[in-house]
Amino acid sequence: MTTALFFIAGLALLYVGGEALVRSASAIGMRFGMTPMIIGLTIVAFATSAPEAAVSIGAALNNEPGLAVGNVVGSNLCNISLLVGIVIVVSQPRLREKLDRGDVAVMALSTILVPAMLLDGLLTRIEGTSLLLAITAYIAVTVWRVHTRRSGEPPDVPSTVPVLTESIINNLLVCAIGVAFLIVGSELLVTSSIEIAVILGIPPAVVGLSAAALGTSLPELAASIIAARHNQPEMAAGNLIGSNIFNLLLVLGATSMVHPLTLGAVTFFDIAFMVGVSLLSLTLMVSRVRLYLFEGVALIATYFAYLIILFRT
User: Fold this and answer.
1) Domain assignment present for 25
2) Which residues span the domain enclosing 218?
C-alpha cells in the first residue's frame, strides 16, 4: 500500500511540476522574445536535465563512472525514441518549418562526437573540457539568436500556454519549484516502480538498467506531454532535442571533470543503438511535413524492442 501511494504521489508531483515548469518557462521566454522551440531547447531542456546531472555527478563522486555514462546513454535513448514517439502520438506535430537546422546539427554532431570519444572506453578530463567548451559556445550562439530576434520583429510566442504570473521573479520561483517537484516526483516513481517490479518477479538486472534511465527521463516526459497538450509540440520537441544536447555535452563534460568516465556496464551496442535511433528521429523531424501516428508508434516500439534485447542479453 505504501509503495502504491508513493507511485501515485510521484505521478502527481510530475504533473504539477511539469505544468509549473512549462507555464513559467513560457512566460520567461515570452519576456525575452523566445519562440516556443527556443524555450524548449534552453530553459525547459536545462531544467529537465537536472536529474541526469544529479545522478551522473553523484555516481562520479561515488567512484562509479560507468553509471554516469549508462545514465546519459539510456536517458538519451529514452528521450529520442519513447518520448518523441509519445509526443507524436499525442499531437502528430508539424515540426519541419519550426525546427532550426543549426540545433538539429548540434544534436547530430554531439550524438556522433561523444560515442567517438568513448571508442577507447574512456572519457578523459581533456575530452570533458572540450565538451564543456562546445556547450558554452552553443549557449552563447543561442543567446545571440534570441538577442538578434528581440532587436528585430516582435516575438511570435502563441498564447496557448496560460501563464501563472507576469512577474519575472515569480516565474523564476515557480520554475525552480517545478524543477524540484519533477526531481522528487521522478525519485518517488522510480523507487516505487523498482519495488513493484521486484514484487512482480521482474529480474533486478533489467530493472536496474532500464529504471535509472527512464526515471531521469520522467521530467522530460512530463514537460513534453504537457507542452503538447497545450498545443506546443515544437516546445516539446525542443525540450527533447535540447535535453539530449545538454546530457551529452554538459552532463558528461562536467562529470568527466569530476572523474574520468569509463563505459562500465554500457556496451558498444547500447551506444550504437542510441546513435542510430537519434539520427533516425532527427531525420523524421526535418524531412517530413507532418509526423503521423504510426511513426510515433514505431519509435515507441523501437524503445521496447531495445528493452527486450537488453532483457535477453
Assistant:
1) no
2) 51-154+193-312
Whole-angstrom Cα distance, residue 37 to residue 133?
23
User: Rounded to two decimals, what is the model's pTM?
Assistant: 0.77
Q: What are phi and psi of 200, to 5 degrees?
A: -80, -5
Model confidence pLDDT, tens digit, residues 166-184: 677 888 888 888 878 877 8
Within 13 Å and on the Cβ side, how many CA atoms surround 93?
29
Non-local CB neighbours of 73 within 8 Å, separated by 6+ positions: 213, 266, 270, 271, 274
Distance between CA atoms of 95 and 79, rounded to whole angstroms?
A: 17
Q: Tell which residue, 236, 190, 200, 228, has the closest CA to residue 52.
A: 190
Sign of CA dihedral 71, 77, 83, 87: positive
Is 227 contained in some domain? Answer: yes
pLDDT at 112: 92
Q: Is residue 142 part of a domain?
A: yes
Nearest alpha-carbon partner for 82 in 286, 277, 230, 291: 277
8 falls within a domain: no
Q: Is 261 helix (H, G, I), strand (E, B) or coil?
A: strand
Residues in the chain predicted with pLDDT less than 50, given as ranges, are 154-161, 204-205, 208
What is the pLDDT, as a whole number, of residue 301? 94
Amino acid at 116: A
Q: Which helix (H) or strand (E) holds 122?
A: strand 122-123
| Dihedral sign (CA 20, 213, 121, 103) | negative
From residue 249, alpha-carbon distances to 142, 244, 271 in Å are 15, 9, 15
Q: Domain with 232 in it: what CATH number?
A: 1.20.1420.30
What domain count does the chain have? Answer: 1
Tell me what pLDDT residue 208 has. Answer: 47
List, for residues 209-228, the tens digit of each pLDDT value. Answer: 566 667 667 777 777 777 77
Q: Quote the CA–CA distance of 19 and 27 in Å, as a whole number.
A: 12
Q: With the C-alpha atoms ordered 287, 134, 255, 181, is the resulting torsion angle positive or negative?
A: negative
